[in-house]
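Data card: per-record layout.
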Amino acid sequence: MDHLPVEKQAKVRSFRRYEDALRTLFGELLVRTSVMEMYQLPNDRIQFNSNCYGKPFLVHPEPFHFNISHSGHWVVLAIDSNPIGIDIEKIQPFDLSTAEYFFSKNEYTDLIRKPPIKQLSYFYDLWTLKESYIKYIGKGLSQDLNSFSIHCDNGVFKLTSQDEASCVFFNQYDIDPDYKLSLCSLSQNPPSIVLIKSCDELIKQFPAKI
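The structure for this 210-residue chain is written out next.
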């Protein structure tokens, strides 16, 4: 904790659940160690700012876009030279009313047309893909999840949106059968860096680097 700015320490301490505080702390340390390795910067010279919606960015002359997500015992970080968004979620039972409220009409229709045995997996496909897009555009909660649609076309997920350019690409990673991990970027190929760490790995890694 002492290696973080005062405001970041306060944010970590503000969480009521220890697990949430730990994942947030690990996410912050993960991006800091990545910056230190890429740019040979000491930790005390790393500065972050945020846009008007609260999405953080690195204060640095070279383009460095990143996004962090965490769920359960996983913390993930994506880095690219262009805007990027990543989301990981633990697969848990859901209520169809949740999908009806948050998803677009087309997405909800696609979901309920799936065989019941496939609905859980597809729900988290859509949820993480939509979250990754929200995080890619950097507008946070100001962008409604049902304001755009994602559909699967011959095994490829594509975006339909009236507000933003739809020329983005989605990638998914199979890291754990109990989780879904999706990424949104401007590149059809995966971004330059995607770091996927378990909390146990991070506990062992950070004392040696920070």
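Known properties of this structure: The CA atoms of residues 88 and 207 lie 25 Å apart. The chain has two domains: 6-80+197-208, 86-185.

See the next section for split statistics.
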